[in-house]
Amino acid sequence: MSANDERGEGAAPPALKKDWRFYAGLVAMAAAIILPLAAIFVPLLGLSTAHSAVLVGILVAGGPEVLCILAIVPLGKDTFNYFAHLAKTAVRRAVVETPASRTHYHVRLAIMLVSWLPYLYAYLPGAFPGGDTRIYILAVMDLAFVASVFLMAAEFWEKARRIFIYEGKD
User: Fold this and answer.
1) Exposure check for the chain: N or C terminus, fewer CB within 10 A?
2) 9 and 72 part of one domain
3) What's the pTM value of the predicted model, to 2 decimals?
4) Spatial contact of 138 and 118, defined as CB atoms under 8 Å apart
5) Containing domain of residue 62, as a range?
6) Alpha-carbon distance 34 to 12, whole Å?
7) pLDDT tens for the chain, residues 1 to 170
C-alpha cells in the first residue's frame, strides 16, 4: 500500500447509495456552503454591532462546521469521504498541478498586491471614503486576497518556498 493509498488519493472512491439519507446529507452540505454567504447581508438587517458580530460569527465560523458534522450522520463516512476526495482532487488539479500562463500569473499577483492598498487607510484616512463604504472596500479586498492566494499556481508556491531556503555560500 503506497502513501497515496493511505491518504485515499490513489484509491477509487466508494460507490454512492442514493437514498433519503444521501439527499438529507447533501442538503446539510449545501447549507454549510451557502451559510457563510448570508453573512454579507447581516449589515442590512439593522442590528446592533454586538448582535451583528455574533450573527456573522455563527454564519461564518460556527454554523458551517456544525452542518458539516451533521451531514456526516446521514451520509455516512464513505459518502462524505467520496465528496471530500472529489473536492481535494479538484483543488489539487486547479491550484497545484495546472501551470499558470504568464498572464494569469501576473493578473493574480496584481490582485494580491492591490488587495493590500485599502490598508493604507490607517496611514492616509482622507484617501478613502468613511463610514460603511470603508468596511465594504476592506471586505472585498480581503476576499480578493484570499481568492488570489488560492488561485496562484505551483510556480508561485515554489517561489514562496524558496524564500525560506538559504542558497548562499557558507
Assistant:
1) C
2) yes
3) 0.44
4) yes
5) 1-94
6) 28
7) 444 444 445 556 666 778 888 888 888 888 888 888 888 888 888 888 888 888 888 888 888 888 888 888 888 777 777 878 888 888 777 666 666 677 877 887 888 888 887 777 767 777 766 677 777 777 888 888 877 777 776 677 777 778 788 777 76
